[in-house]
Backbone:
């Protein structure tokens, strides 16, 4: 590699786009299309990329395909942005393997969501002790807190303990619902000096981005067919113009809402990305939903209305 | 009773507001405040009211309180609108008791969500056979299909079988995600003559109302601090002005989204209703969330922005 | 009442039989049959009775029926044994109501399992703070820890905190799997003086009774068609004859195993009790399983083999 | 390969032992120890072996390790018995890969449990359509029906549809609870000519083996530290001596029950196997339970009592 790989740190911030994984219409990994996708994300202002998240259809790839995809993306990014790799796995051996391979290939860090079997605080803490060991103390990791999907409830107190016990836990991907109070609680602990700083990037398609930024979030780590929404909302927020941040956010919200439908959402996102030329095919690997003609009509109408409203804001 | 109680039927349509249950700051049932709430809902254009839904804190009431609340509301409504009562219960004996009492008091019908233990199609069909028996063949009932909350997945085929087997199943409260295709499938079965008509009212706080109306929904049975949103969107849709329906919808969407946060949502809704004078206290019975100062600020800001945007639309 | 009601305490021990609730073949509460059942349990050596547990079909009774059943049993027991009442409920208002009524009627205490929605330690602790308030500081309560059924994992640390915070938590109904280490941990905390003593009665149909007694359990709070198994195993254990305790246990195990089948178990138990003359009808309220002819053959064969084996042991 | 690989068929029957996966004390795959284990199972009378089941710690292996283990076992078995491989996976790509590799290596077929996200009948049928495609029409597969672990309820009707639609579904690994009626229902459908024959092997550690054999099961596909229990019970059953079958079963039941503890069970099984010399180390890969000294005492005592009782039966 001719570039110096970036490392995720507790100071990392911005918009880390959860990347889709492009497939050919036949369901094969589409690496050529991946180049265009990477460029699309970076040109829209992404600070970083996160691969193999839930919306990256990670579980549908073989171990070998996962590594091939990471390798391809990291090469294409070529040092322009940090690349985080989702390594959540049913077992630590597979997690260890993908982590080691990803870091060797030049990833900036890894992300791990808890398995849905975890219940008590101790179970969660023990699990992340295993995670910290599996990824290795040199590998920065992101704790993904997404109870709506995992069924695992991680209290603020447990997050703070994980942060305290494992120096390589540098970031929270926060997508608890309701989660604004959690952002506030974590920032309060940091302000009070009882916890070190970690990055807090928000998820849920950015559906609460303006409020989350005001509570102290450092950015977003999520996906959306128009990732520039998150970039532009953040910029307006950073410029102190909260009303403009919300005006922009509101313009994208009707489509963002449609894309957040559980189950169908990724098909919507890939359709939009294909429409915008970011990927060649909107194909999901099976099993996965397929948009009906009526769904497609909905999406196009929402895109048209969104374009008109953004026009009025510019 | 001096008025003729209305009965729910397969032709019922419009906006049935899922009513909150008002409590005093001490947590007692606030019947005087209920009068104002009923009037508020009807003045905003509600076609009907639905009591003791999940957002009506039904599980927090004793059996006696439930009956007292139904009695009070039905008397206040005084025939101006049909009143549906949520009678979901862990056992059929309690369901039978509340149903009989509610219908005696003048309710138009009852609503039942499945218990979260159901899994297979047969289990669901057997359960609704028990429901149809428990509520009695004379009592119209609404099937509540809300997998995000119940964890029970009811396919279109199963809904059609329940409709076929039980003549008193007259309405679907649809809040599946993704659910637009389900509305389409049910309407297609009706159009093809393979199923009789039932009413389809949508839920989820109306978050997909414009699209659902276009797929053939008859209205909404859900709650929101501004129930006039649903009324006005439906009117514009009925008038053939889909763009205006969406303009109105979009104006309310930022707050609707905030109110749809799992866990926190009902506290937001009650706060808004209290702000608007519809109830005297925003109190939820314990266990229940309490809004932080930051949450309240968020809500007020969203209300202000919403007012400005509606002003611009008028 | 002419007798002094007994109160559950941290010293309570022995076999508290989880009572079935007898119904007529038509599904009505069978109070006359209840008299025979109470006498049956006490004559087999039960130290106490626990009503309205999961295996008491509690959720299938109306609030009024629950109170009527408690009243009837307490009167029949007439001070011969303490009566504990399961008051688990979806809401605190109903729990408060049934608790107050039960204690007024002469119950010795109440039992509460957590609702299946609880996940994190804080959620569980908050819930039991609500429980302690709802039942009142004068009412001794049993914490039911049954993750296989509730899906809620309560760590030993959380149990110890509940015990520390709420003086009226006097007993654990332990039926975690694997749970032997939990009994050991709780007894170790008590021995170390870091926690006060509570009673630990075991559940799961007594399927691990010999081992649990050796770890320090005070008895059992569970059901079985032959409750004398638990009484006799405890007596042999108390007499220091662990081998005989296990011989007796082993003789009953094949049937106990059959009765522990999730879903079908209660129908087996009621069939056995009806066979033994303890109840008049083995009817379960709907929805509930019905034994097939083959199931009945299995049960009878197991009963015959059990009788032969006990004969050989006597 | 110098031997002809056996293929699983709808006529397959007997005891397919769910093999543990041996690890060194350091947690590495212990292939030398695997040789002894294979021989142990076959010498105790196993008809076949099933690798990489839930009790084979399948999720803790990397894809490469899984293939290496299958390869090693198949070579050691050397045609003496059919080898089935568990290929359950979060995604079809990984399932396809492991299936192809296993069949190439000489496996007799594969086994697939449903992912815990499945709910409705249609979802299950669609999933197994995907399975049938992923494993390929030439590969015989076993449907694993284990709701206690997966949370997925598969009705008899759905099983019959899967059997009808996919000729390569040749066997059911039945471990539903209560499940005896399911065995009866499937055999009745076969007897009535409405369904073709499939093999039905039972699970749950054989805890219901005598009753299941009487209902028409063809054997067992499960694990236990004393797999000869299943072999001997089957032989007595096949010889028409149901009482002896039950005498033998009852002798093993106390330990079988102890080994069936969720969570702890596999540690018990590996301890017993290590005690018996079948594996060198009882190590489980993390995360996994570790037996306490008291647990070990329990197991040894149960083994001693079991030995005495078997002695008395011989």
Residues:
């Amino acid at each position: 590699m001719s570039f110096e790989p970036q490392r995720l740190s507790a100071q990392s911030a911005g918009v880390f786009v959860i990347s889709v994984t492009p497939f050919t219409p036949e369901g094969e990994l589409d690496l050529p299309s991946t180049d265009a996708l990477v460029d699309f994300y970076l040109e829209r202002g992404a600070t970083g990329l996160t691969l193999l998240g839930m919306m990256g259809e990670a579980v549908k790839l073989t171990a070998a395909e996962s590594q091939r995809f990471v390798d391809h993306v990291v090469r294409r990014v070529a040092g322009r942005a940090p690349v985080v790799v989702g390594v959540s796995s049913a077992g630590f051996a597979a997690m260890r393997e993908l982590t080691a391979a990803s870091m060797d290939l030049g990833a900036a860090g890894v992300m791990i969501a808890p398995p849905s079997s975890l219940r008590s605080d101790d179970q969660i803490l023990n699990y992340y002790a295993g995670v910290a060991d599996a990824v290795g103390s040199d590998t920065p990791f992101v704790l993904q807190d997404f109870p709506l999907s995992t069924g695992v409830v991680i209290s603020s107190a447990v997050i703070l303990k994980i942060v305290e016990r494992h120096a390589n836990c540098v970031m929270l991907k926060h997508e608890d619902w309701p989660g604004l109070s959690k952002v506030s609680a974590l920032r309060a602990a940091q302000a009070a000096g009882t916890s070190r700083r970690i990055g807090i990037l928000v998820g849920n398609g950015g559906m609460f981005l303006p409020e989350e930024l005001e509570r102290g979030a450092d950015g977003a780590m999520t996906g959306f067919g128009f990732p520039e929404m998150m970039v532009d909302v953040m910029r307006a927020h950073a410029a102190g113009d909260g009303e403009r941040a919300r005006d922009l956010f509101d313009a994208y919200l009707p489509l963002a809402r449609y894309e957040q439908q559980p189950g169908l959402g990724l098909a919507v996102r890939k359709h939009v990305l294909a429409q915008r030329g970011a990927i060649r095919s909107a194909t999901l690997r099976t099993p996965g939903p397929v948009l009906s003609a009526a769904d497609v009509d909905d999406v196009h109408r929402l895109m048209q209305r969104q374009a008109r409203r953004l026009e009025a804001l510019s």
The mean pLDDT of chain C is 96. The two ends of chain C are 41 Å apart (CA to CA).
